[in-house]
Amino acid sequence: MKTILQIALSTLFATLAFHAEALPPSPVGPATVSLTATFQATTEDLIKSSTNHSTTTTNSSYLYKSTTTNLTISSPDILNLLANSFNTNFPAGAKLVLRGSSGFYVFFVSDSTGTNLLLNVSSVLSMTRVTVVYSGQGRLMVKSTSATSTVSGNDTESNTVYAKIGYDDSTLTTGDGTTTTFELAGVLTSKYSRNFSNNNVTDNVTLNVGGGGTIRGVPNGVIQGTIKCKLAGQQAVV
Questions:
Q1: Any residues with CB less than 8 A from the CB of 190 and at least 6 apart, and which?
Q2: What is the pLDDT of residues 197-206, one digit of tens each?
Q3: Fewest beta carbons within 10 Å, which of 84, 99, 134, 215?
Q4: Run of H or E including 10
């Protein structure tokens, strides 16, 4: 279905006026990050020991304990990580946003409006669509005259994606000298809707992930949680 629609739309809109931009229109929305990283704090530390003797035996007892520490990672925390990675400061109210649709998404930092994009951070924080399956239905209607062509209809889909998120600033000179390198993977669900008459798109995304790595020089963290985003805006005709 996707290939047929893309070919049809590309052919139809080739005859319409379209102004190229450095960044073609694409839905954008603030990303809500809710992650927890668990690190090893102590490993089998001896807490208490005792030894009892009798005429025939010696009994020894050892009490040991391993502990963990948890780190909560929210959207502002990711912004702080990115500011450290790029050795910069973002303006007050800056937001972590996703841009794209249908499983293809790129992380940006925007200003407080959520629409003016300041920095493409995909060189450090990336999302990769590995496998995707589509389910949905679309209706594309075309009205043509000798002078113009117009389209109408809509496309509604539920997309299920196996996706990976990578964070790697190991090649950069970070603000505090520490580096962050982790990889997450999980299932992304996308509820996608497109109006063909104006190319307005909404895309509700939920990604449940798990993985691990190093955060600001602290290794061996196990990371899990969710990333959610509601994207809206015009979709470029491709």
A1: 101, 102, 103, 157, 158, 159, 160, 161, 203, 204, 205
A2: 999 999 999 9
A3: 134
A4: helix 2-13
